[in-house]
Amino acid sequence: MRRPFFSASILTNTKADNPFYFAFSIAEKFRQPDMNDKYWNPGGNINLLPENGQTVDFYIAKNFNFKKHNLFIKANPYLILIRNNIVWIPTSGIFRPDNITKTSHSGIDFTLKLFKTFSRKFYYELETIYSYNHSIIKEK
Fold first, then answer.
1. Mean pLDDT of 7-34
2. How, if at all, do strands 69-91 and 51-66 pair?
3. For the chain, how many structural domains are there in total?
4. pLDDT tens for each residue of 97-130
5. Cβ–Cβ contacts within 10 Å for residue 15, how many?
6. Is residue 78 a contact partner of residue 58, using CB atoms and an 8 Å limit?
7. What are 56-68's pLDDT values in tens digits?
8. What's the pTM value of the predicted model, to 2 decimals?
9. With the C-alpha atoms ordered 29, 32, 35, 40, is the resulting torsion angle positive or negative?
10. Residue 28 placed within a domain
């Protein structure tokens, strides 16, 4: 019998005129192999185990007024540990799903958004996102 899932999160912000956002979450992950993973022809694997693991996610964000524009900056680091990760691997020219015993995924996402509202129907927004991800096979 599986133990129950755990998930918790916290979100807070400060003054409404210049908000500062902070969020933190811890959760369990679970993914059952889908029909393609098990029965894709050719390449499915009926012996796949379900994925499970934990994730820790954090973000911090701030709004700034910048020369009559609004500037929004957000940083979002994360860590994910997965057991029995389902990965499609090329074997003899055919991709087949297989379980990798332990994997670790960590990274950070940065968001930078510049925007200005001129009226209820007219505004502009310029946004850029940078993501860095580092994944490691800890045990095959």
1. 78
2. antiparallel
3. 1
4. 999 999 999 999 999 999 888 887 888 899 999 9
5. 7
6. yes
7. 999 899 988 877 8
8. 0.77
9. positive
10. yes
Residue 1 lies in a domain: no
Distance CA 38, CA 61 (A): 41
How wide is the angle at C-alpha 41 spanned by C-alphas 38 and 44, nearest 5°?
25
In a domain? residue 20: yes
> Is the residue at 30 inside a domain?
yes
How many beta carbons lie within 10 A of that of residue 44, not counting itself? 16
Domain that holds residue 122: 7-139
pLDDT at 1 over 50: no
> DSSP letter at 51?
E
Helix spans in the chain (H): 35-39
Written as six digits, the tokens of 13 are 């912000």
Question: Can you tell me the distance from the alpha carbon of 96 to that of 47, in angstroms, rounded to the nearest whole number?
Answer: 12
Q: Can you read off the two tokens belonging to residue 119?
A: 């009226």
